[in-house]
User: Fold this.
Amino acid sequence: MNTPRIASLVPSATETLVALGLAPWLVARTGFCIHPREALAAVPKVGGTKDVNLDKLRRLAPTHVVLNVDENRRETADALRGFVPELIVTHPRCPADNLLLFEQLRAAFAHLPGVNERAATLSADFQTALARCRALTWPGERVLYLIWREPWMTVARDTYLSTLLAEAGWHTVPDVTGGEHGAARYPALTGAEPWLREVDRVLLSSEPYRFGEAHVAEAQALCPQARVQLVDGELLSWWGVRGAAGLDYLRALASSPAA
Assistant:
């Protein structure tokens, strides 16, 4: 298949495909696929990650659709198999999986100009950032990473985000796993859990809920002994081309002196 027509239904994957030089072959994206803005401005939107407009996507006649186990629905993948020649299913579960992702995408589009070289660069940059993070000794901290309020919601230990934070010695609480996919990966809190008083640091994400300065006092009341920080959720939770920058951002956060 020499001339692919690529649809990406995952923001992290879309950004990574562009980094690999594949923007000219992108024919569809979700409304959440917003980076890099200029490269995607003319690419049609086909709904969201959970509510893909399958009729519109069918009309765009993709030869490849990039999906993610955590972000897209199984029913979507099942429906796509009826009219898409090749599905590329991604599932980075920890930072090191970015290397597997780069190879997965490289292999799918290796025949296109520059893809092999760009994939090699992305891999090298990521390995360098990971080595920089692992070269330091980190004190262990109990971290509550909040992604929502009313109710408070956080991340399970086996999410990409949690395993990224662990590279800086930050162990997310509660100590639960959520499985391959589904709501259990993002547990809700009542706010009355006794372990909240033992949290060392609270991170307030910029997505999917946009926490701001107005929420800091509320989070501080939730975890009175903790340091509360607003953080860039895209840098910490988006994988792929963001992986290296995410590690560097994490290293800077963990190295900053306590307020």
Remarks:
- The mean pLDDT is 96.
- Strands lie at 6-8, 26-29, 64-68, 86-90, 141-146, 152-153, 170-172, 188-189, 201-205, 227-231.
